[in-house]
């Protein structure tokens, strides 16, 4: 299997995606939050790049059937129902609802990935089931790290490494450049200290500083939700 790692949404050129399986990663926190919301009963998640786009979509839906959710720079958007902490997305809150989500990095990456043959939503929380689907699809794989406002993201990169580790442990012969090898080695070194590692990242440090280290601890749980999540160009479903 040919495996590539894209470090930020700015690297997502069309030719890197077409005909391949894309796994979008935004560990802290969009893809972790999407997986959590769907596992806890959300009807579906609609990722929107912009706040205005999200608000306009909400106006099209019946009141009481949706939640307007998202953040900018880690803080819940004013007037939204929920932010981007997966801990907010409890069953009693999200069950049966359409979640309209707009985040600083992750939802832009999800929308940008739609040219791939199949787009999967990946996180540490659903690492193994996502990689099993990538194997079953039989396509070359692109791990799309969302990054942080156009810059490299440590927590997304180590999550990509966790996915590569799973493939290697399954005996998959991987062809990839030094990004792939480095991500794998990083994960192997810090597999037992992911919270510590991610707390040192730019996003992690920011979450710690605003009192949300619990989000890091939650998002670092490996295979906590055995849920396979797809993006069809408009919505994420399972």
Describe this structure in words.
It is a single chain. The chain has about 240 residues and is α/β, with parallel strands linked by helices. The protein has one domain: ComB-like (putative 2-phosphosulfolactate phosphatase), CATH 3.90.1560.10. The chain contains 10 helices and 10 strands. The strands form 2 sheets. It has a 6-stranded mixed sheet with strand order 1-8-2-7-9-10, with helices on both faces. Strand 9 (about 230) and strand 10 (about 235) form a beta hairpin. The longest helix has 16 residues, at about 155-170. The two termini are about 25 Å apart. The model has no long low-confidence stretch (mean pLDDT about 95). Keywords: Hydrolase, Magnesium.
Estimate what percentage of residues fall within beta strands: 15-25%
Total domain units: 1
Mind telling me the CATH class? Alpha Beta
Query: What's the number of helices?
Result: 10
CATH fold-level assignment: putative 2-phosphosulfolactate phosphatase
Protein name: Probable 2-phosphosulfolactate phosphatase
Catalytic activity: (2R)-O-phospho-3-sulfolactate + H2O = (2R)-3-sulfolactate + phosphate
Enzyme class: hydrolase
EC number: 3.1.3.71
Condensed summary:
The chain has 238 residues and is α/β, with parallel strands linked by helices. The chain contains 10 helices and 10 strands.
